[in-house]
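Chain entry —
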Amino acid sequence: MRRFLRLHIINIGYMDKLSYALGLGIGQQLSQMGAENISAEDFAQAIKDVLEGNELKVSHREAQSIVQDYFKKQEEKLQAQRAEQGKVQKEAGEKFLAENAKKEGVVTLPSGLQYKVLFEGKGKKPTAKDTVMCHYEGTLIDGTVFDSSYQRGEPATFPLQQVIAGWTEGLQLMQEGAKYRFFIPFRLGYGAGGAGASIPPYATLIFDVELIQVV
């Protein structure tokens, strides 16, 4: 009898954890989809009604329509926010580059790419078709670091034809052993779309790049 009670208690504890785990997964998905102000009580009640076969407050077809309409509005809201953010980033980037062009040692190329030589190298120069090994650190104009091979503790190797245009152009100016600082306008970076959560739309980027080897 004691063994039965103990197993029963264990099963109850397991099912509680399973229920919570399922809710955790669904909740995370909703959060990633941009769901806001969801009523947890109504959400739980809907699940209960389905599992217990109760009469539904709305039909499955109506529910599908409601959900599609909600996420359509959320997407429109997100796009409006990104457009406003992009406008701010674009204006800030243009102002930054205009002021930066006046600084000593900064060279502005016809494409709009700016660079500053931190120290020169004496080795081979890459072409656009080459693969290079580099150490680098990328920041936004506010100083936020979004990527760094230095922090990872190992250099990166990649073909120059497979990176942003600012890198493809800029690396060809360098010789092995050199270290340059690039100031990359959004057109030569990740453009109007940005890149993930780290790089906003229309972002001007700053890269310190050390060319280790033309592979």
